Amino acid sequence: MNGTDVSTIVLNRLSEEFETLTPEAQKAARYVLENPHCVGVSTVREIAEFANVKPNTFVRMARQVGFDGYEDFRAAFREAIRSGPAGFPDRARWLQDVSKQGALGGLYAEMVGAAIRNIEETFAKIDSDALKAAAEAIWASRRVYTLGVGVNNANARNFTYLASTGMVEFHAIPQAGSDAADDIAWADSRDVLIAMTCHPYRREVVETVKIAREQGMTVIAISDSPASPIIMAAQHRFTVSVDTPQFFPSSVSTIALLETLLSFVIAVASPEIVERVEKFHKRRHQLGLYLEDPE
After folding, report:
1. What is the distance between the alpha carbons of residues 241 and 243, in angstroms, rounded to a whole number?
2. Does 147 have pLDDT greater than 50?
3. Buried-state track 201-213, b at ≥16 Cβ within 10 A, e below 16
4. Where in this chain does the record put each SIS domain (predicted)?
């Protein structure tokens, strides 16, 4: 197990134990969850100042989640810095080359670098068993609702469109002219909600996740921090990296995660899904939706 795996386990434990912590320890925990990269390079006094709590608060927080103290807690994050994520072959050399093309070339390099880094960091934090568990919940459900607003509405609709080629009862919400909370009014423990939002978190997404849990639904959350309110509330939790040089959060890792989740759903599904996909595309050809290759 590498350092990244260990630090991810620590973050997951901290997220799971969050509600049991004292209010001051929650402030410390929230800072760690939102700034894990700071832990390995910060002394207890430094990180306490960043989080606006006393150093002893970090010591108590570490003990409350099973460590001897802050230094023991910090060790996993120091190892993650040392080992780091695996890089793409020759990535650094290629990025240096494109950055020499001028101002726009430099921006291009920054954008490409951020996209690659976001995907690497996202999948470094995600366990295949966690994806399999979420996929099995989706396949076993009666209905699946995919919730996203703003840019994530397009991501939710794209995922729903692809899933609907082989599955029925997939619904992107909020539906036109409706409210997400209304769209799940008759959902229950037989149904799944896939919800996504990034900081600053959209109120309607957070509130719909809360309602979904109250109705007994299974929630799969995708967000940018273990401290995200929808991550905290979900049974299946996936944290994505969304950093970008631009003013908007990147959707690259969210889309990659959704595509991977869908591939896991297909993998765990019964054989009938292959027949459905084949029938779907055969129907499209029959309707003339595709340009056929000339004979």
Report:
1. 6
2. yes
3. bbeebbebbebbe
4. 134-279
Paired with 145 in beta bridges are: 171, 193
pLDDT of amino acid 92? 47
Q: What pLDDT score does 90 carry?
A: 40
Tens-digit pLDDT profile for residues 173-182? 999 899 999 9
Give the DSSP per-residue string, the chain: --HHHHHHHHHHHHHHTGGGS-HHHHHHHHHHHH-HHHHTT--HHHHHHHHTS-HHHHHHHHHHTT-SSHHHHHHHHHHHHHH-PPPPTTHHHHHHHHHTT-HHHHHHHHHHHHHHHHHHHHHHS--HHHHHHHHHHHHH-S-EEEE--THHHHHHHHHHHHHTTT-SSEEEESPTTS-HHHHTTT--TT-EEEEE--SSPPHHHHHHHHHHHHTT-EEEEEES-TT-HHHHH-SEEEE-----SSSS---HHHHHHHHHHHHHHHHHS-THHHHHHHHHHHHHHHTT-SPPPP-
Q: Which of 36-45, 86-95, 143-152, 238-247 is predicted least confidently? A: 86-95
